[in-house]
Amino acid sequence: MTLESLFGLDDRVALVTGSSRGIGRELAAALAEAGATVVLNGLDADRLESTRAEFAARFGEDRVAAAAFDVTDEEQVARAVADLEARVGPIAVLVNNAGIQHRVPLVDVALADWQRVLDVNLTSAFLVGREVARRMIGRGTGKIVNICSVQSDLARPTIGPYTAAKGGLRNLTRAMTAEWAAHGIQVNAVAPGYIHTEMTQNLVDDEAFNSWIVGRTPAARWGTPADLAGPVVWLSSRGSDFVNGQVVFVDGGMTVVV
Ligand code: NDP
After folding, report:
1. Strand (E) or helix (H) holding 5
2. 218 backbone dihedrals φ, ψ, rounded to 5°
3. Which numbered atom of ligand 1 lies nearest the CA of 147?
4. Molecular function terms in GO for this entry (predicted)?
């Protein structure tokens, strides 16, 4: 057994939702480094194209594709997955990464905002996962990695919809496992701690919050998108062929201390 046979992704097609920037972009780059042909996704077509062009320069034109679609829209998802399978090839790896945050005390959360956060962080994984799994089941193989959060397990004030969605995503990972594992599909999740991206820039800039996070994290620092690359490549590779329904916390130890 070689490292290549364990972790190499040798031209397998990997779709990473929400990969025009932030964590998704770093995960797509790591999967490409491991040998995958990656499909980038996002809403903003210009940002997506500029990321695609960077990937093409780094990995080669034939190793990257881009698909701008809204992961919360059932029809767009169905059309995009069918088109990608025809245009790029069978999707062997799906990383459900697209997500949004909305910081408001629960008593002030408008129903539309609650719904939007649930849609982007949870329903999207069902919609894209269902569409891709229908094809993976026919092929008897596939890897799905859902990007959860420490908020899959913990709560804190002002992020109620996100906490509910990420908790749901943890259990959706188990539901997918219960139904799809026998078809050769491994569904797992990675739960990042506090990672410095655009989504959290305002928290990094908030001195009090910043020092609270560093103090609350045994590793005594913010995470980086690169910290998530190893676990996601592992869960996308043959090296995790008997790992099913697990949530791997990549949080500098935050969830194991009080
Ligand atoms: P960013 O805000 O930096 O990036 C979000 C990405 O999702 C963008 O590419 C955005 O595309 C895309 N996106 C948003 N809505 C949609 C949609 N409806 N359809 C398609 N794409 C969409 O987020 P992060 O990189 O910080 O977070 C990525 C994931 O990691 C999320 O699921 C988040 O919850 C999770 N996470 C993040 C943590 C952190 O500390 N940052 C901690 C724990 C979990 P566009 O550029 O077009 O807007």
Report:
1. helix 3-7
2. -50, -35
3. 32
4. oxidoreductase activity, acting on the CH-OH group of donors, NAD or NADP as acceptor
Give the number of the atom of ligand 1 that is nearest the alpha carbon of residue 96.
Answer: 32
Question: Which residues are bridge partners to 111 per DSSP?
Answer: none
Domains and CATH numbers, the chain: 3-252 (3.40.50.720)
Measured from the Cα of 166, ligand 1's closest atom is: 34
Catalytic residue among 59, 69, 162, 180: 162
pTM: 0.98
Q: Any residues with Cβ below 6 Å from ligand 1, and which?
A: 17-24, 41-44, 47, 70-72, 97-100, 120-121, 147, 149, 192, 194-195, 197-200
Per-residue pLDDT of the chain (258 residues; tens, 9 = 90+): 899 999 999 989 999 999 999 999 999 999 999 999 999 999 999 999 999 999 999 999 999 999 999 999 999 999 999 999 999 999 999 999 999 999 999 999 999 999 999 999 999 999 999 999 999 999 999 999 999 999 999 999 999 999 999 999 999 999 999 999 999 999 999 999 999 998 899 999 999 999 999 999 999 999 999 999 999 999 999 999 999 999 999 999 999 999
Which residues lie closer than 8 Å to 102 by C-beta, 6 or more apart? 109, 113, 116, 117, 159, 161, 162
Question: Contact at 8 Å (CB) between 233 and 34?
Answer: yes
- Please tell me the distance between residue 34's alpha carbon and the centre of ligand 1 in angstroms: 22
190, 250 Cβ separation under 8 angstroms:
yes
Q: 194 an active-site residue?
A: no
Ligand 1 centroid, distance to 99 Cα (angstroms): 4
